[in-house]
Amino acid sequence: MSTSVETSLDLQQHAPAGSAPAGVARLDATSARIKRFTALLVMLIPFFGFVAALYQMWAGRFTSTDLIVFAAMYAVHMIGITVGFHRYLAHKTFRTSSWFEGLLLIAGSMGVQGPIMFWVTTHRRHHLYSDSPGDPHSPNLYGGTLKDKLRGLWYAHMPWMLAPETSGWNFFAPDILRNRRLFFFHRTYFIWVALGIALPALIGYLIDGTAQAVLNGVLFGGLSRIFLANQASWCVGSISHMIGSRPYETGDHSANNWFVAVLTFGEGLQNNHHAFPAYYRHGVKWWEPDLSGWLLGGLAKLGVVWGLRIPDRAAIRNVKQTARQR
Predict the structure, then answer these.
(1) At what angle do helices 180-187 and 98-109 cross, to 10 degrees?
(2) SS3 content of the chain, % helix, strand, coil (to 5)
(3) pLDDT tens, residue by residue, 96-140
(4) DSSP secondary structure letters along 173-220
(5) What is the DSSP letter of 28?
(6) Does residue 187 sit within a domain?
């Protein structure tokens, strides 16, 4: 999608009442087709790779190396998305050096959830319109019957990516547009996607030195990792906005789902996150499963990151009191 189309979308903020939500615009027919095609590729190619990996396992054509590479790449994928794209770019919950910033954004790009500008604008839009018209992936806008809830849950999980609309760059992410270093990682997105497939293949070859190791590197550390990690990530916008506990009053349906939180290194603690979106941790309590928050705490002690944003106790007490009164 061209920059000229995207940068013009900020005009939507001046749209009259009753039109599209501010910052959201409907794509022209050609751009909508390109978006649908790209989204389908992101959904289907990793799925077929996952099926092929299952066949390799069924046929006994895999080794412990393949499983270790899968686990390592899954961790890189999740840290890139949760720490890099989400907590660093979208919410600015900490600061870091340019070299570590680069590592985070490369790792996030290897997650194949879209280039930086798409990811950040979509996420900030989600927070602005959470579970109300304008939210790109709310499961709660289709009615109250079981059928309606299941329809919303499915839509929020994957089909939302096919919608013929987009989020304005100037409206939701002018800070990234102005930053040439950050925008470099947006423009080179497909290089990092390719690296995320090639790297596990190379590791497999260096360890086992066979063509099967290369293939399995692509299937396990590449495509299967993308499929499973992104299915887990998409549960944050679907399951964690419908099923789970709600200790804080946030004005939406965000919920803490521990199962999703474990799979996504803390992202499933959505109620906590929507209550305190600038907090570098999603686990408000130390024992809530937030691997990314624990990692950032450790990196801060090592001096790799700094300026961790933490809500004061008064702010936490105020949100808790609001929840109790409700």
Answers:
(1) 30
(2) 65, 5, 30
(3) 999 999 999 999 999 999 999 999 999 999 999 999 999 999 999
(4) -HHHHT-HHHHHHHHTHHHHHHHHHHHHHHHHHHHH-SHHHHHHIIII
(5) P
(6) yes
Note every long-range contact of 149-156, with CB atoms under 8 Å and residues 24 or more positions apart, other chains counting.
149/242, 152/242, 153/238, 153/239, 153/242, 154/238, 156/237, 156/238, 156/241
Helix (H) or strand (E) holding 25: strand 24-26
Domain range for 295 is 3-9+34-325
Residue 201 to residue 193: CA distance in whole angstroms? 13
- Assigned domain for 28 exists: no
* DSSP for residue 24: E
Dihedral sign for Cα 101, 103, 109, 113, please: negative
Determine the Cα–Cα distance for residues 249 and 274; give it in Å rounded to an integer: 9
pTM of the predicted protein model: 0.91
Number of domains the chain is built from: 1
Tokens of 150: 């299941």
- Give the H or E element holding residue 40: helix 29-58
Q: Is 146 exposed, middle or buried (0-12, 13-18, 19+ CB in 10 A)?
A: exposed
DSSP-assigned beta bridge partners for residue 256:
245, 269
Residue 51: CB atoms within 10 A of its CB come to 14
Measured in whole angstroms, how far is the alpha carbon of residue 152 from the centre of its chain?
Answer: 19
Task: Band the pLDDT of 321: cuts 50, 70, 90.
Answer: low
In a domain, 15, yes or no: no
**Sign (positive or negative) of CA dihedral 250, 256, 261, 264:** negative
Domain assignment present for residue 251? The answer is yes
